Amino acid sequence: MMAHSMDDRDSPDKGFDSGKYVRYTPEQVEALERVYAECPKPSSLRRQQLIRECPILCNIEPRQIKVWFQNRRCREKQRKESARLQTVNRKLSAMNKLLMEENDRLQKQVSHLVYENGFMKHRIHTASGTTTDNSCESVVVSGQQRQQQNPTHQHHLLSIAEETLAEFLSKATGTAVDWVQMIGMKPGPDSIGIVAVSRNCSGIAARACGLVSLEPMKVAEILKDRPSWFRDCRCVETLNVIPTGSGGTIELVNIQIYAPTTLAAARDFWTLRYSTSLEDGSYVVCERSLTSATGGPNGPLSSSFVRAKMLSSGFLIRPCDGGGSIIHIVDHVDLDVSSVPEVLRPLYESSKILAQKMTVAALRHVRQIAQETSGEVQYSVGRQPAVLRTFSQRLCRGFNDAVNGFADDGWSPMSSDGAEDITIMINSSSAKFAGSQYGSSFLPSFGSGVLCAKASMLLQNVPPLVLIRFLREHRAEWADYGVDAYSAASLRATPFAVPCVRTGGFPSNQVILPLAQTLEHEEFLEVVRLGGHAYSPEDMGLSRDMYLLQLCSGVDENVVGGCAQLVFAPIDESFADDAPLLPSGFRVIPLEQKINPNDHQSASRTRDLASSLDGSTKTDTETNSRLVLTIAFQFTFDNHSRDNVATMARQYVRNVVGSIQRVALAITPRPGSMQLPTSPEALTLVRWITRSYSAHTGADLFGTDSQS
């Protein structure tokens, strides 16, 4: 039967101003569906062409076909919206389950505190003299007390593993640690999850729990690969694997962690890692340090490291109804703050920094892979997400290698020029260039090694986000185009002469081309195109475009306690997946001030550049903030140019430090009114504006008397 006209009451496909509708045959619906698959919104000409080419549609009016496509698009939209709402509902259900568990944990904590309060009152009333109060000791040490009560089992790995499991579970889902929710991390269907940090416990600790659309064993595989998500992890070496009778495994692991700055030593952990399944179907991986008394070594394996302690930590993965997993992650460490300078100790005593660098980073990494696996993340540059992640990891790893300069990687110090502000290290080891970080094609025709110039400086009252954004967006104000050209020459077969560092820099412009960003926009991978302008014959060799692969992270204003960094490496136009990278850059680490944890108002207050100029009154915490800025630049050299490259690198880093100090003066918030036009900060800004104007127009903005 062909199309029939019937009454409106029975029609799912109605015209706008017609009292009739069309009932379509299966053949007609099939023909229309084929067209819809190719073009969901055909034009009037396309619909008329369809009627001419399809005989079974010849007795249907073009208006009715238009209505069919409108209704078909509406049904498709409703289907997608229904699927989206079902997904949101599953997330809300899982998040509700997490919140209910968190509420139960808090109720247990309240009951425990009420019991302790009553016990303390009883002791006060019954005490006849001065007594020693040990009631405030953390529940975390209960496992160690049990271990001391049973010295015969102290060296038994399985008993240590079971004890570690019990302590970890008490932290992940119980009250062994006094957790407080991290400011700015609110739970919700689109949030990363529930994030908490420790208060008044031994060492520093952080906890996070969230929902991901991956199966538990896949999540465990991702999280066990610590270097893939923890950017400060140098290596994880499994020294021994022991199966247990319950189907689990015990591993003896050595973990090496990069130092974040040149002012401190790296850390390492010697741990026992226990992986097993629980009776409810959950999978758990827990870990803790081994001491010399429990079978571990007496000290670090290398003099470049300081032995740190990992208290019971790990992750609990529970299967979720309807698919996916609920993850509980706990990190609890003691980084031995006594071995670092006092000015840096807040960096090693901050649970917030631990949460951002380890706990939250692990959860974000799993969520990123889950959304890439489901196809929710689309990249328009033709690169697979795994390739782009590898680029980010290689940039971070290369920068960390330069900052730390480990002797077993081939780095050795170079004699200085008498000043100690800049450290110069060289690496002539062939193993450095044979690894995956640099590739076999590195230094094609020249180059006996790599030279690194690095320094760290302490800045006062400088907003870290404003500083890192300025370095990213205004490269011409601190970089030297000739030095950039020399760095890019390492990718070409033709050697390039060592440039003289220019005080005024070289006129250039930059265009930032985005490649990828993480889900919460806390990290950006991009290509920077640098274009130079030659104003003299000797500068003609510099007036060519160059490209940098750049990673910018930590620029999210909502992140609390995190560090920011800008790392870049020269690349050529081909930009192959295995392109060699020699990263340089900056790392900004805020040093957290000791404040009252109950003072949420001051802890959550933020500042931007505009508010720093409006003369508003600042609190002591805001006006006494400090940060550590670490700078590292790497250059290639050959046997004949090593000393010249060292001189150039040392002077270049000093110039960069001077530029940053001028920038810091300009962006430092000051109480009171705005600076007068004759202030050094205002004159610095005027010089930047006039120089940029002259570079782009060729004219002097103020004529001949530019100084006044």
From TrEMBL:
Q: Name the major location.
A: nucleus
On whether DNA-binding is a keyword of this UniProt record, the answer is yes
Q: Which UniProt keywords apply?
A: Coiled coil, DNA-binding, Homeobox, Nucleus
Q: Which domain of life is it from?
A: Eukaryota
Q: Which residues form the START domain?
A: 150-378
Residue numbers of the DNA-binding region are 17-80
Pfam family, any one: Homeodomain
Tagged with keyword Nucleus: yes
Xref: PANTHER family: HOMEOBOX-LEUCINE ZIPPER PROTEIN ATHB-14, HOMEOBOX-LEUCINE ZIPPER PROTEIN ATHB-9
Name it. Answer: Homeobox-leucine zipper protein ATHB-9-like
Q: What is the scientific name of the source organism?
A: Camelina sativa (False flax)
